[in-house]
Every structure is written in C-alpha cells, then in structure tokens.
Amino acid sequence: MNKISLEKIHEELNPFFEPVGVAVIGASLNPEKVGYGLVKGLKEGGVFSRPGLKGFSGGIYPVNPKVQEILGIKCFPSILQVEERVDLAIIAVPSKFVPQVIRECAQKKVRGAIIISAGFSEAGSEGKKLQEEFLKVAEEANIRIVGPNCLGILYPPNNLNASFGLTLPYTGKIAFISQSGALADSVIDWSVKEKYGFSALISYGNKSDLDVPHFLAWAALDRNTQSICVYTEGLNDGRLFLEIAREVTLRKPVVAIKAGKSTVGTRAVSSHTGSLAGAYAVYQGAFKQSGIIPANSLRDMFDISKGLALMPPLKGDRIAIVTNGGGAGVLCADALEEEGLVLPAPAKEMIERIDDSGLMHPAWSRNNPFDIVGDATAERYKIVLEEAMRSELYDGVIVIQTLQTMTDTVKDAEIVVECFRKYNKPVVTSFMRGQFAEEGIKVLENNGIPNYDDVQEAARVMGALGKYGKYLRERAEQ
Amino acid sequence: MKEKIREIIGKAREEGRNFLLEMEAEEIFKLYQIPVPETVLVEKEENLVSSGEKLGFPLVMKIVSPQVIHKTDVGGVKVGIKSKEDLLSAYKSMIGEVQDKVSGAEIKGVLLQKMAPSGGREVVLGGLKDPTFGPVVMFGLGGIWVEVLKDVSFRVAPINETEAREMVDEIKGKKILEGVRGEKPVDFVSLCETIANFSRMVYDFPEFKEVDANPVFLYSDSLLCVDARIILE
C-alpha cells in the first residue's frame, strides 16, 4: 500500500468545511422538509437559534425548478444555471434522482457532495444499485461523497452548517465524527445547553465513499481541532483505519466509542477461538494499538476529549491530589488507581515548607492526597498547589474543591489557572458543581482548565492523559 | 521459510484436508520460533519403544490421522506415559479406540511428545480472521478464564513485543502470571516474543482461517506450546 498522505486527504476534504459556494439540491419552501432546514441552516446557522449564532458568509444556491426564492435567496432550476463557483453540493432529493444530480454536479465541477437522502445500500438491492451508479459518476469526476443517509457536516469556526442538524454548536476545539445522524442532533442540543464547543461535527451515514479514516486525517490537520472523538458502528476498511489512525494520534489525541458490545458480551463462548472473536473486542484492541482512547459511554467520550483538547499528555504516571474534602480525595484516589496511576507520598522537605507557611490547619494530611481541610482558604490552595506543580515527584495534579461556607470558589479557580500557566503541567479539576460553586467553575472553563462535576470523572480523564502520553513515548522509542 | 510452509499447505490441500496435522502445525510454529515440545512421528509399531526411550519418559501420545481433527474426543490423546509398558498398552488402546470411533480412519501412526513439565501456568493464543480488520491475534489465560470469564485481549496482526506486552497487561487475570502465593513470575519476555511471532505467522499466511496454540504452558524461564492447531480457509 502506498504511504497515506494526510495532507492529500485534508486537501480533498477541504470543500466540505471551507467551500466557496454551496448548492442545496432539493431546496424547499416547506418548513417540514429537510430541503428547507438545509437552506435555513446555511443562511442563519440553524433552525433553532442560540446567542451569537451566525450563518455561512459564502455563496448559497438553493436548487428547485418549481421555486423562485427561499428565505430571500434566489432559487435556481438546476445547479448548472448557477454562474458562480460551487464546490460543495448538499443533496436532498429522492434517491432515484441522485445519480442524475451527481452528473450535473460533475459538469459544474463540484468537488464534494453531501447526500442527505436515504434509500441506498441500506434499502435493498435497488438502492444498492443506485449507490453504485452515483459512486461511479463521482469517482470519474473526482467528487468525494459524504453519506448518503446522513445528517451532514457542521463547521462552527466557519459558521458552516452544511447539514439538517438543529443548529451550529458553539465553537470549540473538539471534532466529533459520528456515524449516526440522530445521535449527532441530540449531542448538538446537549452541547448548546452545556456550552460544550465543537470545532467540527461530521455525520457520515452510509460511508459510501468517505469513512472515519478520511475524517480523522482531515481533523488531524484542521487548525481549529485539538482533539477528535469518534462514534462508529463499524468501519469499511479496518486496515486503512489503523494505518491512518496511527498517523493521526501522533498529532492529535483521539477518543472513540464502538457500538454493539452486547451481542458479543452475551454470546456463548467456548475455548474455540473463533467464537471468542467479537467485533467489539477486536475494535478495542485496534483502538489501543493505534493510540486511540476507548470510551465507555458518550458522556465519557466527551469528558475525555475535553481534557485531551485542553491539557498536554502526562509525562509519567504520578499524580497529586489537592483537596479540601477528605472523602472526595479518597474516592478520587481509588479511581486513579483503577486508571493505573499512582499517588507518591510528598518529600519531607515539601511537607516542611508547607508547614512553615503557618497557614495550614494543624490536621492537614501531610500526605497525598493533600487534604488541606474543609476550612481551606485560597491561600492554602496556593501554597500546596504551587508545591505539587513544581515538584519533580508529580506528573499531573487533580484539584478538588467541595464548597464550604468559607470557600472562595473564584479565587481558588484563579489560583489553578495561574499555576497551570506557570508550570504547564497537566491539571484536571473537580470543583463539584452546584448552584453556588458555579462562579468558580466558569473561571476554570473560560481559562481552559477541564473541570468535572465528579471526582471519578476527573480521575478517568487523568487516566486518558496518562494513556495517551504513554503511547506517544512508546511510539517515539520505536 | 515461507516456501516450506506453502509446501505443507499444498500437501494438505492435495489430500483434501482443510486442516493441518498437528505435526505439520508444529513444524510451522517452530519456523516462527514458537517453542513446541520435542516430537517424534512413529509410523511403525516396532519403532515405538525405541523412539519413546530416546525422547525419555514421561511422554504424551497423539493419534495422527487425516480424518481426525479433534483428537481428544475420539481417544486420540494419552498423557502421562511413564514406562515402556505404559507406552505399549497406550498404543494398543488408542489405535483400537480411534478405529472404533472414526470408521475408516486412516491411521498414519502416532506422535510421541516429551511431556511438558508440571507447574506451568496455562495460556491460550488464537489467530483468526476478523471481517473488518483481517488477521487478528487473541491472548488469554487458559481454562476457566477463557471459557467462563472471557478474559481475553485482541490485537490486529502483526504486532511487536511492546504491543504484545500491553495485550498481556490488559487481562484481568494478569496477577496469576505475575505469581501469587510466592510463585515466581512467568517469563514475560519469552511470552511477548512468542505472541509477536505468532501474530506475524497469522499475518503472513492469509490461508490460515484459524490458528490455536492451546494450551501454552508458561514457566519462570521458558514456555512451551503443547497443542498446535491450524485450520485452512
């Protein structure tokens, strides 16, 4: 096999994310039709609005021979009537018309097509034939295809909603590649509420042409993406996936979840190896050997992606916990151990320096977890956190804050931010969320510190930073 | 090396077999540096005792017949043969039982193998074809661990020793290999080399539909694969 070039794939996929002009073929005036939502999504950013939502600033060309104008935009009888350059087409016409539409796209020198329509390989032999037909045309004309049977692509940094997804999510650093479109829609809804940002959201459906490996390659070189997460139900070409994923993870962290565990989990097993092979277990192995962090749930995947996007990977496995709550510290320590991380005791001199500050409660733990006691002020957090961050003994720090009457949550957060900037060592926080802790959490979130409501989630994310760091070190040695 | 293996595969196909005889599979394992016990094929009864004595007791005897793939099920395996007398009687009863249970079985002889030392910890290696990823390799602890607890890990073949080590570290029963109640740890270096070699073999020969090394006995300074099985596409 030829050496895969991420650059080449990125270049080929660019029209899906930074097109000059976008045509919507099958545009509609009827708000109940996908063809309406597509035009509205392009023009305004989404059917559902949110603060700061903007539409696409490039050319938008609805195509429908029966309509003059949609949402104030001129409508064309055919893509061939558009004079301006069109490099992306979004297609939402009945499946039987798709091959003809792709032929016209070829004539118009379109470079990418998103086929929203269903009724292809998933719908029996007739659909399969249609799929083969349009693929042949596309291949000859060098048109890359996303879908069919998908939601489409959303690229918030460019205000591009080339999908019938509800709305553009807030701009963030995480690219989400999802086989399922419906799932992507719910993720958008959730993300807007949580203000969890995405650099890109890709729903790729039937993967007739472009599949996870291609989107991984694109995201690896996308300047707005810091980490990548993948939801897949199955890949077309496992070897291609492995090859590209191994290149991608050298550049950016990837987290993935594979659906379909239970069919394997419940399968009767004998010592016969054949019956032990479950796609799920093989996928888990493939993820690990390409440096991808396997996630347990969607929530887990987004938690980990956030941490990996914001923090550098761990250089070792030694973690310090700084906490003002004993119970939370122990729970976190338990979870860290499960992640394969260790909590070395502090050096004697470190304890002495902290004691000498004269600010500590006499009953502070003098051990790791650094339990600085419930009445801890921001000054106490500062002394201990500084020590843990600058110490050669620790590769990463988890800061836990339980809200007490004397807690200054904003000041605590500012100390974490300051310390991270000073030492650039991975920090994950668990300022446990609630009505009154919110202010401090905002400070963390606005300053790029990954915070988690639950200490176990924080430990899980630290574990992922550890796994990714270990993988990178091993690859560097090979 | 690959030529030699292709010859073995060719011969099996000529004979209309979709599996390799154990001695053929063992030969392939050996070519990939996967340790197998010292083995002698005994085709004539008169050579039985001299071959056995040359290997040294205790011995294992296995039937060699193109019609028999699951040897244990038809009385085709006898372990713990400690003497010349044991050997002769085991031979008689084995030939009788196999002929009884597999009508028309063509018996080419028996394999004599030096019995693996006791005290080994049992693991399983498997190679198979995944529809998405192609050749993959599986590792797990033997017996109840693999059958009941499904405590296994997979990788897409081929893998190197570092990746093999991760595969080993991943299983829940790993502590058993590290040694419990004062036991010494198993030879992890040999184990990881063997897994890597096994994965290369599985990858190099797409003709192999399934490969089993089950069980493999692990010792503190070595390992031994005592049963090799290869099924062809």
Give the overall silhouette of chain B: globular
Count of beta strands of chain B: 10
Task: Estimate the strand proportion of chain A.
Answer: 15-25%
- The CATH level-2 architecture of the largest domain in chain A is identified as 3-Layer(aba) Sandwich
Subunit organisation of the chains: heterodimer
C-alpha termini separation of chain B: 20 Å
Form type of chain A: elongated
Give the number of DSSP strands of chain A.
18
Instruction: Walk across the major sheet of chain A and give the strand order.
Output: 9-8-11-10-12-13-14
CATH class of the largest domain in chain B: Alpha Beta
CATH class of the largest domain in chain A: Alpha Beta
Total helical elements of chain A:
17
CATH superfamily membership of the largest domain in chain A: Succinyl-CoA synthetase domains
What's the order of the H and E elements of chain B? HHEHEEHEEEHEHHHEEE
Major sheet summary line of chain B: 6 strands, antiparallel
By CATH, the topology of the largest domain in chain A is Rossmann fold
Can you give the mean pLDDT of chain B? 92
The fraction of residues assigned to DSSP E strands of chain B is 25-35%
What is the architecture of the largest domain in chain B at the second tier of CATH? Answer: 2-Layer Sandwich
Specify the CATH homologous superfamily of the largest domain in chain B: ATP-grasp fold, B domain
- N→C terminal distance of chain A: 21 Å
Characterization of this structure:
The complex is a heterodimer of chains A (478) and B (233). With 478 residues, chain A is of the alpha/beta class. Chain A has three domains: 6-149, Rossmann fold, CATH 3.40.50; 171-310, Rossmann fold (3-Layer(aba) Sandwich); 319-477, Succinyl-CoA synthetase domains (Rossmann fold), CATH 3.40.50. Chain A has 17 helices and 18 strands. Chain A has helices at residues 6-13, 34-44, 98-107, 124-140, 181-194, 212-221, 238-248, 262-265, 273-276, 279-289, 298-310, 326-338, 348-356, 378-390, 409-423, 438-446, 455-477; strands spanning 21-25, 59-63, 69-70, 73-74, 88-91, 112-115, 144-146, 152-155, 160-163, 171-178, 198-203, 227-232, 254-258, 293-294, 319-323, 370-371, 396-401, 427-431. In chain A, the strands form four sheets. In chain A, strands 9-8-11-10-12-13-14 form a seven-stranded mixed β-sheet, sandwiched between helices. A five-stranded parallel β-sheet of chain A has the order 2-1-5-6-7, sandwiched between helices. In chain A, helix 3 (98-107) runs parallel beside helix 4. The longest helix of chain A has 23 residues, at 455-477. Mean pLDDT of chain A is 93; it is low at 264-277. Chain B has helices at 2-14, 22-31, 48-55, 84-101, 144-147, 161-170, 174-178, 188-204, and strands spanning 39-42, 59-64, 77-81, 109-114, 121-130, 134-141, 152-156, 208-218, 223-225, 228-232. In chain B, helix 6 (161-170) packs across helix 8 (188-204). Chain B is α+β, with helices and mostly antiparallel strands. Chain B has two domains: 38-115, Dna Ligase, domain 1 (2-Layer Sandwich), CATH 3.30.1490; 121-232, 2-Layer Sandwich (D-amino Acid Aminotransferase, Chain A, domain 1), CATH 3.30.470.20. The longest helix of chain B has 18 residues, at 84-101. The two termini of chain B are 20 Å apart. The mean pLDDT of chain B is 92. Chains A and B meet through helix 7, helix 9 and helix 10 of A and strand 5, strand 6, strand 7, helix 6 and strand 8 of B.
